[in-house]
Structure formats: C-alpha cells, structure tokens
Design a protein that fits this description.
It is a single chain. This protein has 543 residues and is an alpha/beta fold. Helix content is 34%, strand content 22%. It contains 20 helices and 21 strands. The strands form six sheets. Strands 9-8-17-18-19-16-20 form a seven-stranded mixed beta sheet. α1 packs parallel to α19. It is globular, with a radius of gyration of 23 Å. The two termini are 36 Å apart.
C-alpha cells in the first residue's frame, strides 16, 4: 500500500514538503489547511483587483537550491534581451528564460519534475526582476536603509547628533560589550548607542511590544547577521567601482539588508504557492482546505494520526506514516493526545506570538515625495520603516513598486500600513472601519498622505505572525527535545519551529526533512540548524 505523509499547513514549508515528496519519493502527501488559501503568510490578498502582500516577500535567497526551485515553477518574465546574470563567489550564471524548466545546473532533470516544470510560456505565470529600495522615515524625512554615513544623512540628522553617533560607534567598536545577552546590547555593539537609539530602538519595540533589553540577542543574530556600519560602507564603495549593469540578483556574498534587486511573482507571492498547489494535485497529492487540526494521536514514540473538523463541524481522522507540522508549536503541544510533561507544557504555554494588521489604502496621490520629484508622484520605495514615535504604524509598503500588476488602476497609489500588536490589544479589536480611519489619520499626521486623497481601504488581520524570542523562549530547547523524540514527526516552517524564518528558510527546513526521510536519518538537528549560519550551510564553491 502507498505510504502517506500528513502535512499540517499549506504555507511555503508545507507545500514545499508536499512537492518534494511527490517528486523524490513514493509517499503520497495529504495537506491539511485551516483556511481556503494557499501560501500561509506568503499568500496574496485580492481586494477589488488590488493585491496585498502580507509583510512583503522578496524572492531572494543565498541558497542555490531554493532559487532553482522557484525558477522551476515561475521563470523570469520576457523582456530581457539577455538573461539576467547572477554573480557571487566568483561565479556567474544566467537565469533561465521563459518556458524553460530550470536554472542551468539544476539537478532536477528527469521524470515528473521535468515534465510538469517545462510549462508553456505564459506571460502571467512569471517572476519580475525588481529593484529594491527601503528607507527610514524619521523627523518627517527620508533616510537610506541601511543607514549610510553620507553627507545627506549627516545634514538631515544635524551636526550635533551626527557627531554623537560617530563618537559612540567608535567607542563601542573599541570597547564592545562582552557576553551579549539581549537585543539592545547586540545593536549597541554593531552600531553604537546613539545610532541604536536613533534608528533601531523605536521601530524594534513597535514590532515586539517590549523593550529591546527583554528580547534575546538570538533574534539579532538571525535577522541582522553580519550587517554593520563598516560592511555598509564597504558595500557602497565596492558598488561605486564595480560598474554594475543592474542585473546582479543573486548577490550571494551580500548581506540580506544590502540586496539591491530581487525577483517577485507578477501577481504577488501567493501566485507562487497557487502554482505549486496546482502541481501537487496534478502529481497525485491531496490538499484539504477548511480543515482545522485539533488532535494528534500518539502510538509510543510515533504519531499515528491527526483529527480535526471541517467548516461544517464534521470530524475526520487522517492516518499516515510521516507527519509534518507547520502549525504553531504551542497549538501542536495542546493537541497531543498524551500526558505531556509539566515542564514542557510550561515552556509551550509561555511562548509568545506577535500579531499583525495590514491596512491597504488606495490613494489618488501621495503628499510625501522623493527629493526633486513633483508633488503626488509615486515614490520609489518597496517599503518604508516608520521611525516616528508619535504613531503606531511600523512600516509602510508601496505595492505599486513590488509589482505594477498588484494595482488595478496604475494611476492610483496602493499602500499597505502595517501594525504589530497582540490579539488582546485594543488595536486588534477595532472594527475594520475604525482601523481604516485610524491608519488614514496616522499617515496624514506624519505627512505621508492627505486624508482626503484616500478613496478606499481594506483591513487584513493575521494572528501569530511573529514568533517571539522572549517569554519562555530561553527554555525552548526543552520543548524541542521533547517533540523531536517522535520519530515520524517533522516540525518545519516559521511557526512550526517557533523560529523567525524567511520563506526560503522555511522551504529549506521542509527540503531537509524530506532529505532525512530519504536517507533514513532520524536525527533532526540539521533541520533546526537551517538559518543559523550566514550561507545557509552551503559550502563555499559548491552548487
């Protein structure tokens, strides 16, 4: 009989696992999705033809494996007289053209993968090459991100503040804090106390809702990695002399925050996962939507099955041989039909999640403008970090600049005002109308828009978007060891592992889990080690 793999969640990790199983093993995946959409946090919301990307998803990875995988499903759009060149680690290669199945060197070259991947050229099922621009909005002015100690920055900050920033950075570079334990110490070591207070403290505390000294330094190590003032300066000096033609999109030796170009599906990130879901079904897998997993049956040190209900309340059980979970680990532990040790329950229940609200605002024009541009012209940013302390909005997306096809009317400006909160906060409990008006008033106050220029809005709430590195996270190893003892259970993805992963890291955890099944490996440490090193555990010189 065909063995089955039950996969909880149809986000990037879940769908990647399903596709990998279908194309590399004889296992049949059955994906159980609580909602009706594909992509999880990487889905695309369609509101009257205007599409919203929840959180912003750049399709960039230092992993060749992930880049190959993406191109297998959505090739680069036509319009390049020559294929875009990817350059890193002393190597160059060309991106596959429309209609081809893979990047040069992609090992997937036979069987069902090649057959399904080599789709006909479709002008809509493609990825676009997009310029990346992010800035900080502070003192009602724009500052480049990452921060550059340029003449423009120094003038905007003022000589006194700029002098303090320089002195505090040099002081900390000479005498770094030893035994860094929290995020505040991490930032101060990297940027100096003045720059930290000016550009990092307020925004970071908006995101997490707690002081930086209460957040573990591990978050900084994972998200900021090797970025520092010196690396930022070196990057821009190198850029001045390299004579780039604007087509370098791999940038494997570049810190993620310094990436200058990225790929992006024509109709938003959800398009990728809708295509993958379609292929999963075509290859013989199953995807069950509107199904909420509420119980996990245990047989010794193995998972025997999961139970749950559909939108009508009908109960159903799914048995299998392997199980992948992308549901929040806290909910998974609550669902286990076994006496979980009290200490493990304490860790699980003490985990904290930060929730997320995006308010889409359709505007006739903007009040803010790029220097030298006319009033109302579209600014060039993908997103803007709002450092202003007098508003709650944390970040602002300009959807037009992710892809012009996200906006139904190109003469309009389609914004995404992002808020970070808890489900218990007053902000979360506001009605859609109240939340829409609140966002409009905040952006009007900080002179991004005029309230009368907003013609429509849409509100999207996403619970458990950000797994937090505080609460009982310092004891997370106890929980991990307990769950890992179940031989046929694999925790993958951001919430499945309570790890602030990007979508490429989430995909790599699923790929690694499938690797382990194929190899008969029971040790899961290689899954947990994804995204703990800057090059994603790829050896230099290897494809």
């Amino acid at each position: 009989m065909t063995q089955k793999a039950i996969i909880i969640g149809a986000g990037p990790a879940g769908l990647t696992a399903a596709y990998e199983l279908l194309t590399r093993t004889d296992l049949k995946p059955i994906v159980l999705e609580k909602s009706t959409y594909m992509g999880g946090l990487s889905r695309t919301i369609n509101y009257k033809g205007n599409r919203m990307d929840i959180g912003g998803h750049r399709f960039f990875s230092k992993s060749d494996r992930v880049m190959n995988w993406w191109f297998r499903h959505l090739p680069v759009a036509e319009g390049h007289e020559e294929a875009p060149v990817l350059a890193y680690q002393g190597k160059t290669r060309s991106v596959a053209a429309v209609g081809t199945s893979r990047w040069p060197g992609d090992p997937a070259s036979s069987g069902a993968v090649a057959t399904l991947a080599a789709t006909e050229a479709d002008p809509d099922r493609v990825m676009l090459l997009r310029p990346r621009k992010s800035r900080i909005y502070f003192l009602r002015k724009f500052f480049d991100y990452p921060i550059q100690l340029s003449k423009d920055t120094l003038v905007k900050l003022g000589l006194v503040r700029a002098f303090r920033i320089g002195i505090s950075y040099m002081l900390r570079a000479a005498f770094p804090i030893q035994n860094v334990k929290n995020l505040e110490q991490f930032f101060i070591n990297r940027f100096g106390s003045e720059l930290y207070k000016t550009f990092f403290k307020s925004y970071t505390e908006k995101v997490w809702g707690v002081p930086c000294e209460k957040i573990g330094a591990e978050w900084g190590e994972q998200r900021i990695k090797g970025l520092s003032i010196l690396k930022t300066i070196a990057h821009h000096i190198k850029k001045m002399f390299r004579g780039s033609d604007g087509r370098d999109i791999a940038q494997k030796n570049t810190e993620t925050s310094l990436i200058e170009q990225f790929l992006y599906p024509k109709f938003g990130p959800g398009q990728m996962w809708e295509v993958v879901a379609q292929k999963v079904i075509e290859l013989g897998g199953a995807i069950v939507t509107d199904f909420d997993v509420t119980g996990v049956q245990i047989d010794g040190f193995r998972i025997a099955g999961v139970t749950g209900s559909d939108k009508y309340g009908n109960q159903k059980k799914f048995t299998g041989d392997y199980f992948f979970s992308t549901m929040p680990i806290q909910e998974l532990v609550r669902s286990l039909h076994v006496n979980v040790p009290m200490s493990v329950c304490e860790v699980s229940e003490g985990l904290i999640y930060r929730d997320f609200i995006t308010v889409g605002l359709l505007c006739t024009k903007l009040k803010v403008r790029d220097e030298g541009d006319k009033y109302g012209r579209l600014i060039s940013d993908n997103w803007i970090y709002i450092q202003e302390p007098d508003v709650l909005v944390g970040r602002l997306q300009v959807f037009n600049n992710w892809s012009p096809h996200l906006v139904s009317d190109s003469s309009k400006v389609w914004l995404g005002a992002e808020y970070f909160c808890y489900e218990t906060d007053e902000l979360w409990s506001k009605s859609d109308a109240e939340m829409g008006r609140f966002a409009i008033e905040e952006l009007n106050r900080i002179e991004i828009i005029e309230r009368d220029d907003v013609i429509d809005f849409n509100v999207v709430r996403v619970p458990k978007t950000y797994p937090a590195y505080f609460g009982t996270y310092d004891r997370f190893e106890e929980l991990r060891k307990y769950v890992d003892q179940y031989d046929n259970l694999y925790l993958v993805g951001r919430n499945g592992m309570h790890k602030y992963n990007n979508q490429d890291h989430s995909m790599l955890t699923a790929m690694t889990a499938v690797d382990n099944i194929i190899a008969g490996r029971t040790d899961k440490s290689n899954i947990w080690s994804v995204n703990t090193e800057m090059d994603y555990h790829e050896a230099k010189g290897k494809q």
